[in-house]
Write a structure and sequence with these properties.
- The protein starts with a helix and ends with a helix.
- By secondary structure, it is of the alpha+beta class.
- The chain contains 8 helices and 6 strands, in the order H-H-H-H-H-H-E-H-E-E-E-E-E-H.
- The relative contact order is 0.11.
- Helix 2 crosses helix 3 (34-53).
- The protein has 2 domains: 1-57; 67-244, Phosphorylase Kinase, domain 1.
- It has a 6-stranded antiparallel beta sheet with strand order 1-2-3-4-6-5, sandwiched between helices.
Amino acid sequence: MTTQNDRLLLNAYIDGELDPEHALDFERRLADNAALANERRRIEALRAAIQERLPREPASLTLRRRVAALVRPQFPNWRAGWAAMAASVAIAFAAGSLATLVAIGPGGREPAVSELVVASHVRSLMASQPVDVSSSDRHTVKPWFNGKLPQSPRVVELAAQGFSLVGGRIDVIGLTPAPTLVYRVRQHVISLTALPVSRRASAPIRPIDGYNVLEWTDGPLAYWAVSDVAPPELDNFAKAFRAGEAEP
C-alpha cells in the first residue's frame, strides 16, 4: 500500500524535485517497496499516454491574465522581483496541476478540495520554506496579496492566542490560484487557504494521512485550515481566526 505522502514524494522524485540526499533515500524505498515501484510505473505510463494521445491546447485568455497578474513585479528591483515571482508562480502552477493529476484515482474520480489543500500543505513542508512572503505583520502580508489575486484573505495576527503568523504564499488548487496564510504553533505549521465559496465542503471532512482539515465560510470565501495538530487545537485556531476577523 502507498500513502498520500508516498505519492507526493514519488511525483517529486519523478519530476527531479528532490535534493540528491532525499532522492537516494527514496530510490532505496522504491527498491524495497513493490507497491511504490508499481505506482511509479503506473504514473510514468499515464504521463506517457497523456503526452501521446492528448493534444496540447493553448492557455485561455483568462488563464494568461491570471498568470500575468501573479507575476506582475511588486519590488523596487523589478528585474530581480520579476524573475523571483515568475519562478514561484511556475513552480506553484506545475505543482498544482500535478496534484490534480495524482489525486485522480484509478476510477477517474475528481479530487476533493480537502485532498488538494492537504497536498499543497505537504508540498510546502517539502520546500525550503513554506511561504513566499515571510512576515509576522499582517500589514505586510495583506498588501502582498493585493493585485496578485482577484480576492485576498483577511489576515489576522493570533500570537496572543499561541498561533504565530509566519507569512503567506500562493497555492494552485485545482488550477485556481489561491492565497494561503501560514501560521505556526510550537513546531507545527498550519496552512489556511482561501477559495471561492463555491469550493466549500460538500461532504464531511475526514483526516487525510495524519493531517486534519477544517473548513468554514465567510462571505464570498471558503477557508480551509490544514495541519497535523490535534483536532481540538485546530478547532481553537479556527475559532480564534474567525473571532479575529471581527476586529477593525
